[in-house]
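ESCALATION

Customer reports they have been waiting on this structure for their group meeting. Please prioritize. Original submission:
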Amino acid sequence: MKKLSFYILGIITAFCFGFLIKPTESISNQINNDETLENMKLGAFSVSLSVKDLQASKAFYENLGFTQFAGSMEQNYLIMKNEKTLIGLFQGMFEGNILTFNPGWDENAVELESFDDIRAIQKHLKSKGVKLDAEADENSSGPASLMLRDPDGNLILLDQHL
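Update from on-call: job pushed to the front of the queue and completed.
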């Protein structure tokens, strides 16, 4: 059940930002596949919150200066933005909160000129002995995701859309 929730979350996240992606003929020149990733480029960071009442959460974060960036009430999720800070509000889609990184994107879901491909990040993490909850297919290219937990059990999603 948890694994299914993770995959659903990945699909939802891809859907959330997918409309912002500009098609490219080839992004292979933009991806850093250096296997010795000393300073990993993880891309945009956001917190994905599982909320009980989407409308109440939206109003709360608007009071903190956030505005709606993506999503809709009808789809049960909103991406809220305040300057470079992103918070995803998700009602009824998953349990717990998730730290999310998007390799290849900045905080406006704009493609970065260069970034570390998720498969290179995965290989680096595994070489350091980091346990992964879900892995990207190492033989694939393009969009993929991986998941891991920090020492306190907080879920971290790396979700590449390019």
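Sent to customer with the following note: The chain has a mean pLDDT of 84.
Escalation resolved.
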